Every structure is written in structure tokens, then in C-alpha cells.
Amino acid sequence: LMSTETACVKALEVGADIILLGHNMKDEQEQSADFARKLGSLVDSDKRCRTNFEASLVRVQRLKNFRQKA
Fold first, then answer.
1. Which residues touch 59 (CB under 8 Å, ≥6 apart)?
2. Cα dihedral sign, 62-67-68-70
3. Angle between helices 47-69 and 4-13 (to 10 degrees)
4. Could you tell me the sign of the dihedral formed by the alpha carbons of 18, 59, 42, 12, in that order?
5. What is the number of alpha carbons within 13 Å of residue 19 lying toward its C-beta?
6. Do the beta carbons of residue 48 and residue 13 sit within 8 Å?
7. What integer pLDDT is reported at residue 50 of this predicted model?
8. Got the DSSP string for the chain?
9. Around 53, how many Cα atoms within 13 Å sit in the side-chain half-sphere?
10. What residues contact residue 10 under an 8 Å CB cut-off, 6+ apart?
């Protein structure tokens, strides 16, 4: 097994379109915010992650637009 942080980074590295994190408890809310900040920093600093992130945005927007037309 791996930590949630490592799993989030790996998901971003391989091009996951969505990363879902639970935050039912107070410490989980703080951890989720930390993960989001770290992923944002990774997108800013790693070209491959930035490319994957931008491609994911395009796919998610395409699905959103399709759904709005339906």
C-alpha cells in the first residue's frame, strides 16, 4: 500500500482525470487541502504532470459540454 499523498501524485503522473479524496474528519480536511496544494505545485513544476493536467481539463470540459447539451 501507499500513502494518500503518493497515490495522488502517481494518479496525476499517469494522467488521471479526477482524483477524489474523502474528508470526513477534521484532520482529513486539512490533509486534503495539503494534497491539493502539493498537486498544484507539482503541476507548476513538472512538465509531464502539467501536460497530463491540461489534457484532463480538456476531456472533463468536453464531457461537461456534452452533458449540458443533453
1. 17
2. positive
3. 80
4. positive
5. 21
6. yes
7. 93
8. ---HHHHHHHHHHTT-S-------SHHHHHHHHHHHHHHHHHHHH-HHHHHHHHHHHHHHHHHHHHHHH-
9. 16
10. 2
Residues 15 and 56: beta-carbon distance below 8 Å:
yes
Place of cell 486534503: 32
The amino acid that residue 23 corresponds to is H
Query: Each residue of 13-37: pLDDT tens digit?
Result: 898 999 887 766 677 777 888 888 9
Hey, what's the cell of 48?
Answer: 509531464
Instruction: Tell me the whole-structure pTM to 2 decimals.
Output: 0.72
Q: What backbone torsions phi and psi does residue 2 show, to the nearest 5 degrees? A: -135, 165
